Task: inverse folding
């Protein structure tokens, strides 16, 4: 074990011995996401895992990278960029210091999610620290691996409730040869119709969005990625004008990082629904992922937005909020179905029996 | 029969158990005569055979709920089974338990061509999904070699792969939602048609859990548009190393082929008389590399692939001229297993995955093992994702050959672990590789798996003794994982 890992391990052991809880912290870029941890300085320690950093292994021809949890995403993306490769799920940073550990622990994905896959689709292996300060290795560095349960993918988006992810191996992909973005003025209904029409067609759409402008009017953005031939053929099948490359990159970045003016609000709800779900009876959303991810602001009634999301086969998360008082009684996440909550609690008990890691981050009293 | 070997009280209890099953399931769903149970004695791995106490073939979800609840009440083990094509003994019956076959739940419930999804019952055959949705220009991507026979329930239990998963992903990437029945008889839905669900990412834990966490009664699978065109290149190399390097070069060039498979000379010589695919029998290894997409796109990619292979020293290159030829090139690859059956009374198929850069090294060491064990081994495998399928040829009538084949296989798996790989890429652990789990994982890691199992099934009734070895088992195998020379609890006696 490296010096830094040893230090972290000792902190966990000491915390467990003195019946303290452990709040795992990276750069803090995604600390806003999830329920706040309960605890005071007397009964909880901050485990700063950002100090454990560095790319452990990267061989471009293997399409696999292994990195320590504190490795900045910026550093990882720079290394990949030099080899013309990328993180396929286009993760948001939400801060200059964003680390790979926080990226995996939150499991958030960016514009390429629907075409490339979710964060968990690319995670091949993890090393997690347990309450005894030991490291458990799940999965590995190879593409196909069915030895034991796929715990690594369970840890994606687990908000560290089972323990800190110390090392992560993930699959990377070559960058597409060509990328072009089309913009088209239309209403939200027209955009949802178009998403429906293209959903089952092979048009090399790597990202799509509808951004409201005034009322139901706005702009549809479609990003095409692939070979030159595929992109130019797809362009002829879709409405809209081509954006300059720099403008297109800036636009998708502003969605990924939520620096777009739409997100300039203290309260943001995220609604995830089946891509072809109809319109929600709500304030006008910003739509992404071919209709499957919808962002709402100025939501008046929490129960209403949750009910609507559920009616459409999805769920609603209070993504950003001004302060703890704004959190609904059942937490920021959509209430789990009762048998799912039961499994969640039993799994927590199975992997963190003393219940020391990241209390309450996922659900209350867990 | 198991009941006869047990004391009278147990016999009575087992009769009560059967009576309770019969109260809901029709008589033709319960098989208890030896000749009825015999066909279920093993799955695709015939080295392990066991006659189950009883075979139950439910016809609907309500039956499955009743069977599981009754098993729980009477503490009877239950082994779920799909089509029985698995290659790791995951569906080997339990001599004192129920063999629960789901093959009668074989309906495609719903196809949504606009959403590109299908809702299917677990007994639906893998290929039947693609056949049913072909009219919409769609297909289901994972294509294990057994796809004409294997069913989606088993695919989910094993996280099945196939030739096309290099580009299109494994079962875990193509199943969006499962409806499962727990050992308590509860209905639980994991995953969703939405891109994510509230809370933990539970679906991937279930996929590949080998029937140990619950029984699937329904799944929503993702369908993808059928590519307009597909072309395959067949490239010959005069050394295994050159072929392995060419695999690396293709990926390094930023190309993700639709399939990238390798066959060594023993494999081509084994299948060529059988399928007459025109394989280069002088080559030490051949690669099959496929491109799919729009016609122009395929043409461009084939040019890029050809350039990479030429630079990598391919001694012969053939590009399929039409669909018929493409299928012929693949026919040898897809028929490697039956071909092995023609040249050898029995064969043993291994399934380790290794980093691509280790392919040449591992194949070379396997050639040494052929001499060590005095058995032939043919290699035909998913080179693009480093998933080996060595076929060890042996004669099951010779007990010594069986032992040598098993030892040969075990040594290959140990080698896979040593070079940074895994003991199973897509066939599962089952009973077959349970010893090597002790090598690949530490006791703490195995305990974590067991804890997850108990979170779903506290009494360990669902497919017990599979996939996760007990402490005793590992001690017997002599492969306690030792970290930095430190063995845990050195004061304990080991045997």
Result:
């Amino acid at each position: 074990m490296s010096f830094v890992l040893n230090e972290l391990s000792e902190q966990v052991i000491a915390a467990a011995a003195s019946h303290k809880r452990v709040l795992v912290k990276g750069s803090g870029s995604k600390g806003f996401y999830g329920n706040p941890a309960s605890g005071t300085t007397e009964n909880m320690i901050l485990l700063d895992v950002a100090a454990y950093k560095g790319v452990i292994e990267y061989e471009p021809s293997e399409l696999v990278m292994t990195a320590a949890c504190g490795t900045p995403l910026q550093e990882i993306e720079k290394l990949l960029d030099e080899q013309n490769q990328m993180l396929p799920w286009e993760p948001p940073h939400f801060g200059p210091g964003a680390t790979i550990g926080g990226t995996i622990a939150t499991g958030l994905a960016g514009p390429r999610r629907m075409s490339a896959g979710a964060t968990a689709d690319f995670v091949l292996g993890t090393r997690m620290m347990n309450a005894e300060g030991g490291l458990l290795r799940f999965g590995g560095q190879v593409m196909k691996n069915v030895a034991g349960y796929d715990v690594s993918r369970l840890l994606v988006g687990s908000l560290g409730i089972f323990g800190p992810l110390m090392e992560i191996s993930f699959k990377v992909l070559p960058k597409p040869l060509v990328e072009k973005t089309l913009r088209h003025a239309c209403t939200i209904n027209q955009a949802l119709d178009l998403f429906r029409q293209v959903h089952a067609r092979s048009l090399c759409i790597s990202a799509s969005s509808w951004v409201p402008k005034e009322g139901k009017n706005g702009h549809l953005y479609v990003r095409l990625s692939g070979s030159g031939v595929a992109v130019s053929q797809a362009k002829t099948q879709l409405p809209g004008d081509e954006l300059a490359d720099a403008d297109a990159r800036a636009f998708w970045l502003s969605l990924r990082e939520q620096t777009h003016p739409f997100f300039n609000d203290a309260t943001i709800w995220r609604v995830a629904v089946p891509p072809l779900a109809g319109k929600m009876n709500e304030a006008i959303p910003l739509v992404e992922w071919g209709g499957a991810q919808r962002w709402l602001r100025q939501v008046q009634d929490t129960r209403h937005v949750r009910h609507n999301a559920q009616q459409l086969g999805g769920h609603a998360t209070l993504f950003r909020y001004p302060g703890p008082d704004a959190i609904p009684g059942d937490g920021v996440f959509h209430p789990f179905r009762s048998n799912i909550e039961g499994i969640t609690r039993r799994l927590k008990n199975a992997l963190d029996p003393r219940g020391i890691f990241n209390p309450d981050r996922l659900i209350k009293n867990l | 029969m198991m009941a006869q070997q047990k004391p009278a009280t147990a016999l009575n209890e087992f009769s009560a158990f059967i009576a309770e099953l019969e109260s809901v399931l029709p008589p033709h769903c319960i098989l208890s005569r030896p000749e009825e149970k015999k066909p279920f004695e093993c799955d695709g791995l015939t080295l392990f055979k066991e006659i189950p106490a009883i075979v139950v073939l439910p016809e609907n979800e309500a039956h499955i709920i009743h069977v599981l609840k009754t098993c729980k009440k009477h503490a009877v083990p239950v082994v779920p089974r799909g089509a029985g094509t698995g290659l790791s003994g995951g569906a080997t019956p339990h001599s004192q338990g129920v063999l629960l076959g789901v093959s009668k739940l074989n309906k495609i419930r719903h196809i949504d061509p606009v959403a590109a999804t299908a809702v299917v019952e677990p007994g639906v055959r893998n290929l039947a999904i693609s056949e049913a949705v072909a009219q919409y220009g769609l297909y289901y991507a994972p294509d294990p070699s057994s796809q004409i026979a294997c069913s989606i329930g088993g695919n989910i239990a094993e996280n099945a792969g196939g030739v096309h998963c290099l580009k299109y992903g494994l079962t875990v990437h193509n199943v969006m939602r499962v409806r499962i029945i727990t050992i308590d008889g509860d209905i639980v839905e994991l995953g969703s048609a939405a891109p994510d669900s509230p809370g933990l990412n539970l679906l991937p834990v279930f996929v590949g859990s080998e029937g140990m966490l619950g029984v699937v009664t329904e799944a929503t699978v993702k369908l993808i548009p059928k590519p307009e065109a597909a072309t395959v290149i067949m490239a010959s190399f005069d050394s295994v190393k050159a072929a392995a390097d060419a695999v690396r070069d293709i990926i390094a060039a930023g190309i993700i082929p639709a399939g990238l498979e390798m066959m060594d000379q023993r494999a081509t010589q084994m299948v060529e008389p059988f399928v007459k695919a025109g394989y280069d029998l002088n080559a030490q290894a051949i690669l099959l590399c496929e491109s799919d997409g729009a016609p122009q796109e395929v043409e461009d990619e084939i040019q890029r692939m050809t350039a990479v292979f030429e630079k990598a020293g391919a001694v012969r290159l053939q590009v399929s001229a039409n669909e018929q030829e493409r299928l012929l090139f693949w026919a040898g690859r897809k028929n490697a297993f039956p071909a092995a059956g023609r040249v050898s009374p029995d064969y043993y198929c291994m399934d380790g995955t290794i980093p691509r850069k280790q392919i040449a090294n591992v194949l070379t060491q396997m050639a040494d093992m052929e001499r060590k064990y005095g058995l032939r081994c043919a290699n035909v495998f998913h080179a693009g994702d480093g998933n080996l399928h060595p076929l060890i040829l042996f004669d099951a009538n010779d007990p010594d050959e069986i032992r040598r084949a098993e030892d040969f296989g075990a040594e290959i798996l140990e080698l896979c672990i040593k070079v940074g790989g895994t003991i199973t890429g897509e066939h599962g652990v089952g009973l077959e590789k349970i010893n090597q789990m002790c090598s690949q994982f530490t006791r703490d890691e195995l305990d974590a798996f067991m804890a997850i199992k108990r979170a779903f099934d506290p009494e360990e009734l669902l497919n017990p003794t599979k996939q996760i070895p007990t402490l005793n088992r590992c001690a017997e195998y002599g492969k306690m994982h030792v970290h930095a020379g430190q063995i845990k609890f050195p004061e304990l006696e080991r045997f």
In short: The two ends of chain B are 32 Å apart (CA to CA). Residues 1-6, 480-495 of chain B have pLDDT under 50 and may be disordered.
